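Provenance

Sequences were taken from public entries as deposited. Structures were produced by running a predictor on each sequence independently, with no templates supplied. The record for Acyl-CoA:diacylglycerol acyltransferase from Streptomyces subrutilus is shown for reference.
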Amino acid sequence: MVSAQHPTRRSILKTAGGLTAALALGSAGVLAAASTAAAVGDGFGLRIVERGEADHRMWYYRFQTSAIGWNPAVNVLLPDDYHWSGRTYPVVYLLHGGGPGQDFITFDRERIREWTAGKPIIVVMPDGGHAGWYSNPVSSNAGPRNWEQFHIDQLIPWIDANFRTYAEYDGRAVSGFSMGGFGALKYAAKYWGHFASVSSHSGPASLRRDSGLVVHWANATSGVLDLNGGTVYGAPFWDEARVNADNPVQRIESYRHKRVFLVAGTSPDPISWFDTANETQVLAGQREFRSLLGNAGIAHEWHELPGGHFIRHDMLRRDIDGIIGRLRKA
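Predicted structure for Acyl-CoA:diacylglycerol acyltransferase:
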């Protein structure tokens, strides 16, 4: 399992240093990058404890925060021309899935740098826990694991304060895979004014269907992987108000006037890391969600494709282009 606390590639970023930046940018670019780096600091309840800014595009930070009991990290992927353009850019928050090996480096491993080359957008890829479910849990026996607080109250304002972003509704999108796809749908509805575009790639969209299978799934996985027996939604009795607030199919009006992009596979995924992380269940929930959006007259784009529970690069590329088309232009 790739530990979110101990990434394996950061020493490469740090030792690449000025030579990599000089080759990529030229001396003027190095000066611009150094000037921008000097402005990136602590704030909003975050204290930087590790940073990597040698690469001209992929910058990295690890924070100390009271919201999380260990030091979570974030990758910030900058546009190719960020250091010399002087422009302001829209941002997409890209949320990783849950389970072994999933953390803030997930989309880096999926070659997001390649698919965003030349595109005028900042991509923020934060830690979300191995099974944090983009939530503040009802209970934790492992110290604070308040991922929702970290992302919404701390990370977003920190990004806006330290990078040239449009700090507004039309300047932000949120997208994610699997658990991250759920997190994207949840954040876009619960924090309506934060995001003008929301995308869910194989993410659950209905918490209560099939006797609350996804709630049970969230409780079980978080209890094992993140909370040492604690739960996201409470057990044996749920925090019903929290489930209602987080459940995409109960927040349909919150998606009106947003760009909504949905992807699901049509095949079961019997070898998934957790038995109920099954694309059949994801597909059923997304169909329920789509039906409700359609009945309400809320525009949305959806794709059902062969295969199970995995990241589809062509859909992510299409999503990035759609996000850029929706958000305020750089």
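DSSP finds eleven helices and nine strands in the chain.
The beta strands are 47-52, 58-64, 73-77, 91-95, 122-126, 172-177, 197-201, 259-265, 301-305.
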